[in-house]
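Dear U.,

For the methods section draft, I wanted the exact inputs and outputs in one place so we can describe them consistently. I've listed the two proteins in the order they'll appear in the manuscript figures. Please don't edit the C-alpha cell lines directly; just add comments below if something needs changing.

First protein:
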Amino acid sequence: MSEQDAWPLRVLAEVRDHPPSGISLVVDPDGLLELPVDLGQVEAATDWRSLRAAYESSGRRRPAGLGRLVLHVQDPSVRAGRDLPWDIERSSRVVVAGFPGVRRWIPMWRDLGPDGRGRLTSLLALGRDPSPAEVVRAVFGASLPARDPADEFAAVVRLRLGNGVPAGAWPLIRGLVTGPLAAALADDPPQAAVVQAAWSDWLANGARSASAALLSRVGPSLAGLVAFGLLRPAVRTADGLPAWTAIGATGVDPAERVISLLEQHPAVPSSATFEDWTRVTIWWATSRRKRSSRRWLHEARTRESARMRSSAPSR
C-alpha cells in the first residue's frame, strides 16, 4: 500500500472485507472519498431523505444474488453510526471515513494531488494540529520562514516553479515570508512586476541598487524565473555585475545610449563654481547639436535599410 493513498485505501479495504452481498454503508460527512464501482452497487445519499430512498429501493430485503450494496452517505450531520436511522444502521455494515486530522486542513487536502494528500495525512496522523510552517515543510518540502533572505527567496521560487502547489496553499506560504521580493512571488497571482523592477534596477545601477545584496546571491533562482517567463531580460548597463547575469540581460543600442547620456544634464548647485558652469556650458552646446545628431542617426539608418532592401535577391 503506497503512502500517498494510505487513508482512502484503508477505508476501501475495510469495505472490501465485508461479505460480497448485503449492505455496506460508508459514513463520509465531508464528501472526501470517491468509491469505485468494483465495490458493488454504489448509491450516494446526501441527507436522510435520499438515504431512506436508496435503502428502500435497493437495500430492504435485498436478494443475496444481487451482490453488495454500498450506501455512500455524504451528510455533514452524520458522523457516526449512531447518527443513522436505527433500522438502516442495524441492517448495514458501517464504515466511518472521517477526515484523519483537524478539519481546518480539509480544503488543503482537497486541492492537493495524491502525493501531497499522503504527506498531509501522514503529518496529521501524529494526532495534533500542525503549524503552517510544519505543513509547508512536510507537504511541499520548503523550510519557511527562513532567516536568510536569499534562502527565503530561493524557497519561494522553487515552490512557484513547481507544479505541486495549489492556489489555496499560497496564502499559507505568503504568511511565512517577509522579504519584499519573496512576498511578491508568494502572492497569488504572483506580482512578477515587483521582481522585474528590482532586476532591471540592479542591471542598470549595480551595487547602488537597493536589491543588489539579495539578487547577487540568487543566480540559480533568477535563472529559473527567466526560463519560466516570470522574469524578462532587461538592459544591463552597470559595471561589475556577475557573469551569470547574462541569462536575463540584453545589450543597448549604442546610438540610443549616446542620446540618453546627452539627456542627463548636469545639476548646478546654488554655490556653483566656474568649473560647474563650464560643464553646463558644454552640455548646452552639445544639446543644441542633439537635434541634428538625431536627424543624422535617422538618416543613416534609413540609408542602411534602403541599401539592404536593394541588395536583397528579387523573388
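Second protein (the one for the lower panel):
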Amino acid sequence: MTLSHWSPILALFLLGVVFTACEPTAEPVPMQITASIAPETQWSGGPMTIRSPQLQGAADDHVVLTVQYHPHDWHIPDPYVPPTFFLDIERVADDQLSFMVPPMYSGSYEVRLAIHGFEPVSLQFGVVGLTQWPEGVLAHYTSTEHGLALPGGGVLAAAEVDYWDGPRGYVFVNLEPWAIEVVPGLEEDRDNNRVMMMYVPGPSFRPNHVVVDLSPDDSVAEVWKVGPTAGSFEHVASAPCGGGSGSERYTAAELSEGHCLILDGWEGRLVDNTGTVLAEDRGLRKGEIRLAPNGRWAVPVTGKGRIDFNDFELSGAIPVIASNGSAAYELTGYVELPDADFTAEGDTLFVIGARSVPGKDAREWSLDVLDAGTGTPFAAVAFADGARLSAVLVDPVRPLVYVGGHVGSHPNHTLYRTSFLAVLDRPTLNLIALVPAPEEASSFGGVLAFGGSSGRIHLLVSCGWDCGGLRDYAFDTK
C-alpha cells in the first residue's frame, strides 16, 4: 500500500491525536476532611478543640478557621447575614488545634475548617453566653448602686433615688419576664415626699425574708417575707434593726432572733442592736451587709458608687461577724471590698477586693476564697490590670462562681467602660469564660442575681439617668 493509500487513515489518526491532546485534563477531586469538635457546647469566651488527621503535616499557614456571627456590640436586624470572621488558632497537637469562642450570643453556630488540598468542612457547636438583652430605657431613677438579690430570683432595688437624700421607695426587679414591679407597702409615696431611712433593704437569717425600714425618720425596721409569686411580699414582724445612734441613712441585717447589725451609711459605722461598735471606717460609707445562709456569718462590704474610686477607701480591717453578733476574725489589706458571698452550706466565703500597689495608678483586684469560720485563705485569683470588680455570686447547684465587673480605658475607670461576666470553676478557680456585655457605657455599681427557673445569671448595672438608668445583661449557663 502506497503512502497515498495511508493518507486518509494517517489523517484520521493525527486528527485523533489532536483531539485527544485538546481534551481538558480532569482536576483531582479534593480529599474530604474528617474532623470532630469538642465540647459540643461551650461558653462564649471559652476554648474549643478540633481534632482531624488531615492536620498532620499541614503547615499552619495552610489551615484557616472561620465562623459567621453577630458580635455583641452590633445591633443588626436578624435577617441581616452575619459577617465572617477569621479565628486565631493554636496547635495543641499534630492533629489538634484550639480556638477561643468569640463574644457570641447564645445559639448554634458552624465553624468552617479549611486545609490546603482538602475540601473544607463545617462543624456545628453550641454557645452559651449573653442572651438578647433588653434595649432602650429600662428604668430611670432605679439604681443598682444598692440592690438586694433574692435567692428565688430578682432584685429588690431602690426607686426614685436621690443620690444624697436616699430612695423614695423600693421596687422588685423581675428578671424573667423583665419588669419593674411595684411592691404593695413598699411603693414610693410622692404625696408625702417620703424618703426612706434605709438606702437598701437588708438580708435576714430567716430564709426568703428581708429587712426593710419604711419610716422617714423613726427608724423602725420591719421583716418582710418574700411571697410565693414574683414581686409579692408579706409583712411578718418588727425587728431590732433600727438605725439608732443618730444615723441619717442606714442598712441592716438580722443575724438571729434578737441580734441585728446596723451600718450607718454616712459614717461607715457598724454597730449591733445594743449599740456596740464593731467597726468604724469611712471606707464602709454607703456599704451593705452580706449574710451567710441561716445567719451564720455576716460581712460588711464597701459601697458601689458612681465614682469608681470612692471618696473614702478602707483604712482598717473588716470584721466578719458571727450569728451572736461577735467579731470572729478580720479581713485585712483591702482598700475596697464591694461584695461577698457564701456557699449554700455557709462554710466558705468568697470576697472580691482591691489592694493598692506602690507605683501603680490602678488597683489590683482579686477573688479571694476563705474558710468562713476562721478566715483561713484557701485560694485567690488575680484579675488583669484594667479590670474592676463589683459583684460575686456562688452558684448553689453547679460548681461555678460568677464575678461581675467592668473594664475601661482609663486607669481609674471613671469614663466609659464595658461590663463583663467571669465564670470560674469553683473547685479549681480556673477561668472558664469571660463574657463581655454588648455595649460601652458610663455604668457603675453591679448586682449579680439569678433569673429564676431558666438558670440564667443577670448582671444589673446602673448607667446614669441620661442613658436609661438600669441595665440588665442576661447570660445563659450550662
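Candidate sentences for the figure legend, describing the second protein: Confidence is low (pLDDT under 50) at residues 1-22, 306-310. DSSP finds one helix and 38 strands in the chain.

Thanks,
Y.
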